[in-house]
Amino acid sequence: MSSFNIGDFNNFLSQANNLITCDETCQRNKKENALRESVLDAENNLATAPSQVEASNKEYIIYTKGAAVYSQGVEERFTTEAQANSQRFSRDFITATENTITSINTYEGLLNNVSNVEDYYNSLIEQNKTMTIELKKKFSDVVTNDRKTFYENQKIESLYFYYKILLFFYFIACVSLAVSIIVRPSDIGRKTKIVMLIAFIVYPFVCTRLFLLLGTLYDNIVSLLPKNVYKNPDITYSPNQE
Predict the structure, then answer these.
(1) Which has more confidence, 24 or 242?
(2) CB 204 within 8 A of CB 167
(3) Is the Cα dihedral 137, 143, 147, 150 positive or negative?
(4) Does 187 fall in a domain?
(5) For a Cys staple, 181 with which of 70, 93, 168, 193, CB 3.0–4.6 Å?
(6) Is the pTM of the predicted complex or chain greater than 0.70?
(7) pLDDT tens for residues 174-199?
(8) Within a domain: residue 41?
(9) pLDDT at 238
């Protein structure tokens, strides 16, 4: 036969009383609040744990080794931390300096490129202006040349009209000469008259080339003659010329 436990009976009565006075929702809220407070207490203990550890360590070292040893340890720790921070700051500073130099060089390169692009753009503008002026000149020259060609064609047509008139009179002259050779008696022999008639007929077709040949011969002969520098002031004498 088991013995009766008054403590368990009291707990049972307490739980029964709680169930009567606080329903399931109330019990859930109480449990939630208890867990929240537990979390807050744990976070508070975690936040204050380093200081508590430091205080406990301080008391232990001072009690076992003395305050001088503790002070020396604190100084060495702070010195090590300071050196580590100094090295980290130095590395960060060097890295920042290198990045700054790289950024400056990049900026200078971009600025140089922008300057070159601007110069090229300005040169293109000047080239466009020059080409526009040249195009206008070309257009003006074309218009002028067309106008000249039109007037030249008019002159050529006019000359060709006079050429046909002169050729007509020349043909009449040739026919007249041929008739006079046949009909009119003369002291000149028939062969001589025929040669004269042939020369008279052929003359219009060879006169242009004949005059061009004579002009070319005249220019060649004049170029071979010694030049008078006093009559040609544009020609300068050089001692090296023989």
Answers:
(1) 24
(2) yes
(3) positive
(4) no
(5) 193
(6) no
(7) 788 777 777 766 666 777 777 877 88
(8) yes
(9) 47
- Among 177, 174, 168, CA closest to 201: 174
The answer to whether the CB of 174 falls within 8 A of the CB of 196 is: no
Is 134 a domain residue? no
Per-residue DSSP letter, 223: H
Spell out the residues 6+ positions from residue 19 whose beta carbon is closer than 8 angstroms to its own: 27
Cα of first residue to Cα of last residue in the chain, in angstroms, is 160
CB 237 within 8 A of CB 229: yes
Percent above pLDDT 70 for the chain: 81
Q: How far is CA 147 from CA 141, 142, 150, 152, 155, in A?
A: 9, 8, 5, 8, 12
Taking the C-alpha atoms of residue 46 and residue 54, their distance in angstroms, rounded to an integer, is 13
Separation of alpha carbons 39 and 33, rounded Å = 10
**Host domain of residue 16:** 9-104
Residue 130 lies in a domain: no
| CA nearest to 119, candidates 108, 129, 111, 107 | 111
* pLDDT confidence bin for 166, thresholds 50/70/90: confident
For residue 156, pLDDT beyond 80:
yes
